[in-house]
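Researcher: Structure for this, please.
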Amino acid sequence: MVGSRISSRKKTFWGWFFIAIGAICLPMFVFAAVVSKLLPPSDNPVIAAVQNDRYYYLLVPLTLPVLVVPVYFHWLSMHEIFLAASTDLIRGKKKKKTMVEHDIVIQEHNP
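Model: Predicted structure, token format:
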């Protein structure tokens, strides 16, 4: 119901905004994690701090294996929901509409 009120232009703006933020953050991380370690020691205190950093250098790559467990459980739950919905369709059972779905249907018929 709330999602239907968001205009297409606003959705497009936020989509491009997040893509731009990701496009800016990725090269910064690659520089901090990989490139800065290959450069000679710097006199600039900011670059020297990035070169001497060992926390984020290891933290970000090590979060990828940890994310496997939540991604697996999310897939498993979606698989169970899909199976339950598909077996109901095969058996011919109709799902009762929730209040939100009912409100959306009413709004679509009464603009």
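Researcher: Any notable elements?
Model: Residues 67-111 form one domain. Helices lie at 8-38, 45-52, 55-66, 68-91, 99-109.
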